[in-house]
Predict the structure of Putative bifunctional fructose-2,6-bisphosphate 2-phosphatase.
Amino acid sequence: MGSTASDKLVIVMVGLPATGKTHIAKRICRFLSFFHDIPSQIFNVGDYRRQLCGAQLPASFYSSTNVDGVAQRKVACDAALADLMEYMRQDGVRVAALDATNSTKKRRMHIVSTLKKEKNNIKCIFIESICDDEAILRENIHKVKLSTPDYKGIEEKDAVDDFLARRANYDKNYEPVDDEDGVSYCKIVNSHKYIVHNIRGYLSLKIVHFVMNLHTLPRTFYFTRHGQSEYNLLGKIGGDSGLTPAGLEYARRLAHFAKEEIARPRRKDTKKRSNSHDFFNDSDDDDDDEKDDDKLVEDNEERPCRLWTSTMRRTQETAQFISHKKFNHTFDNGESFDWSQFRPKPRRNLDELYAGTCDGMTYKEIQDTYPDEFARRQADKLSYRYPRGESYMDVTLRLEPLAQEMERIREPLLIVGHQGILRILYAYFMGLDRKEAPYVSIPLNNVIELTPHAYGCHEKRYCLMMKEEMLVDGQDEPITSMPMAKRGLMAPGLYDVNGNGGGGGGGANSKNNGGGANNNNDNGDANKSNNGDA
Ligand code: ATP
Ligand code: F6P
């Protein structure tokens, strides 16, 4: 796909250190590349500065009175800008982000005039993050900045002091973006107030809309497939069948899980739960549990949660006990929890990838009846569209608004969905290339917990059924592993190497662990080389 000059856009980040510029730039690029197939790249001036001048520079290096420092920072900026321009000249490339403080008008005007020199009229928008909330800043420094190469091997207190001194040096000359600059901008103040000026055009508006959904509050997503369905048992794809007895048992356990793990904050984040234990067969002694509960007693308050299902019977039946009144719950301290918060919200865009004329067939039947179609799907699972049905690409498009909504919401969210759908959402939040999505392992009988953090997501998997309780079904796709040649940077164990339609539990890094074990995984975002210190 070639692109015209007017398609091209440079996002210039602006803000004092530790105001989330890298985080925001990464989220934007991830969103554009995953859902809109718009290649984009971040040019992080901090990376260039480290290469040119070294990592561990004192705070005084960043003072505007340090003539050498100022000159070297400009060299680093120009090197990043030169590479950015080189990148933008490529056919098909549309978006790049220049990630630095860009905290003075002089610097910003220099960037604008450099972009103008290009014969391609590249559009530019500024995204400025202002954060004067001391607590957030300190948290950002601790969570992200201390682990950069700039502070490797340096005492925590010294590192924090130095970073604050660096920030103060930038602050002395900081000039916020304003209308006089004659530029387009979106200003984010303390992550919840937005000022948007002179933003026009589809792509810029799309980006600003996306940015306005972002927030930094802690939240958790829980993904699960429906319990085993009648069609799973028969090895048929699609349809709208109900649950088998094993599927119903999973639904009951999911309701218990929802009550214990999702809705009760005191259960959250305990050391005990973050280890690899079987949710229903936990052998830790109760003393520890009580200690954990004591520690978190102040968190023990009702919290609203969200529950989304598809419009299909099997997901609604899987969610049925969660909203059932018998799960009304009274906490130990006498407070009750309003389970109506968990009332499922069926959503059509969560419906499983539609297999068109192959709906209701087994993979074997598809292979026998439509061998060419079968082969085409094996060759390119992402783009392949079932006759009169959908492709993973189609599904990705219909999930875009939903992903935006997920960026926005603050409550814990449980999605009871389908394999194909959850593969896409998982791949997006875990920073996988979308080509990899159709091969991700999302086994039945497991809940996948994703907790977004600065540049990625932490993952835990809970297997809710024991091995012997799982019925073997016949839905496994014959070859669902991603061809080796197409694999990107991800750990090989992530992929579904044996087919995963069946009842076996399996963690992110295991082929099929048969239940009992829960797995942890952590993943950064798409731009893996970028360490986030702009
Ligand atoms: P530096 O200039 O030193 O590179 P930076 O501005 O790029 O810093 P990040 O590396 O992105 O800062 O900081 C990441 C931290 O900022 C994360 O912990 C993230 O949660 C937080 N963050 C993200 N968005 C915002 C925001 N709008 N306001 C404040 N903090 C934010
Ligand atoms: O922490 C500030 C920082 O991210 C440095 O790592 C980097 O050298 C600098 O900002 C880049 O911004 P500027 O070019 O404005 O100094």
User: Anything to note?
Assistant: The domain at 221-266+302-469 is CATH 3.40.50.1240 (Rossmann fold). Residues 17, 45-46, 49, 73, 77, 100-103, 166, 533-534 surround 6-O-phosphono-beta-D-fructofuranose (ligand 2) (CB under 6 Å).
